[in-house]
Write a structure and sequence with these properties.
Blueprint lengths: L2 E9 L2 E8 L2 E9 L5 H6 L2 H6 L3 E6 L5 H10 L6 E6 L2 H10 L8
Helix pairs in contact: 3-4
Length: 107
Amino acid sequence: MNATSQIVSAVPEGLILNVQIEDLVFTAYVVISEPDIHRVAELVTPEAYEQANDWHVAAVAAADDAAEQVIDIAFNMNLNDAVVFLCANAGAYDATLQALGQQGATA
């Protein structure tokens, strides 16, 4: 899997990315956060929510889990979907960004 991405903007404790993995293009919110579904409502504006086809949420507990989480989510996504990655700590956050094609980005 070879992901490329561009930073769209920053959100509290994270970034919003436009991501491409092969023919799949999607929006990813990557933040440092406890795995709390209510965080999604705090991060995603109603306008952004309406723009995506479907929304996915993944909790990344550790850096070692990041690449597998990205692959699993991408496998279940369609074009123009969006995903929120709730990363438990800075290590998980950095690894998730790297799996999504960002190098050297930190919170």
